[in-house]
Every structure is written in structure tokens, then in C-alpha cells.
Amino acid sequence: MENYSEIPNRDDEMELPPGFRFHPTDEELITHYLSKKVVDSGFSAVAIGEVDMNKVEPWELPWRAKMGEKEFYFFCVRDKKYPTGLRTNRATAHGYWKATGKDKEIFRGKTLVGMKKTLVFYRGRAPKGEKSNWVSHEYRLEGKFSLENLPKAVKVIDYH
């Protein structure tokens, strides 16, 4: 049997066996990736890149992804709209990400571990933006994995 290891090729893409797809469940994204990234800012995942969603337009994301054909995964630090406020800034140079629908609860067994918010990209400025076909899902830790329940040493770091 061939040994397929994580060997980047010249284009920084992974050399993986035919048919491989990175398609984690919501629960896997929360428990195996996001929670580890929050605890250790140096954590990196082979299949998940890092991007500032406020400085990149959605049509630029495929070229910044580590892997993927139609779905791309990124770590992104939330940007605040106002320095002292709690509201999230989701604006880019050419538009904005607008939350739509109800947040979905993500469970590991019967334990709440996170939430998933669906965002749609609008070109232009609110309230007259033009809806596009770009959709993003934003994940956050809740319950057992929420920032309030992490060790005190971790809470010192601001991830918002």
C-alpha cells in the first residue's frame, strides 16, 4: 500500500490520494479544529487556511484556500464594528456579509458545543446592497467549549 503523507507540492497544495475530500461535520469543525485554534493561536490545520474576511472579497477566497473545490475552510478572527462594542464588523471594500436565518445549535452527543450562523454576501452598502450567490457559515464556540468554560490561562487572550 502506498504511503500518502502530508507533502506539499510546489504550489503549496497537498498531495493526497485520488478521491480525498475534506468534508468535516459541523461537530468536527468545532471540536477538532476551532476549539484547538482558540486554545492555541499557533495551531494550524492542513486543510484550513487563515484569512481576514474584512480584507478579502468572496471571489478571492478560492485562491487563498489550502484545499477545496466548491467549499473552502478558513480560520478568521472576528472584527468588532466599534472598539468598545460587541457588534461584529462584516464589511469588505466591495460589500458586506449579512446574517440570515436562525443560528443552528451544534451538539457533540447531547452536549452543546457550538453555533453555526449563515451569512450571505451583498455587493454595495446596506441597506441597498445587491444579494450575491456567495454563502458563508460562521462557527462559534458555545456551551462546554465557550470562552467562559475554557481554562483561565486561555481567557486572557482576546479572540473577538
Describe this structure in words.
The model is unreliable at 1-11 and 152-160 (pLDDT under 50). This protein is mostly beta strands and 160 residues long. The chain has one domain (26-155): Metal Binding Protein, Guanine Nucleotide Exchange Factor, Chain A (Beta Complex), CATH 2.170.150. The protein has helices at residues 26-39, 152-155; strands at 49-50, 74-75, 79-80, 88-89, 95-108, 111-123, 130-141. The longest helix has 14 residues, at 26-39. Helix content is 11%, strand content 29%. The chain is globular. The chain contains 2 helices and 7 strands; from the N terminus they run αβββββββα. Strand 5 (95-108) and strand 6 form a beta hairpin.
Question: What is the element layout, followed by pairings?
Answer:
Blueprint: H1 26-39, E1 49-50, E2 74-75, E3 79-80, E4 88-89, E5 95-108, E6 111-123, E7 130-141, H2 152-155
Parallel strand pairs: 1-2
Antiparallel strand pairs: 3-4, 5-6, 6-7
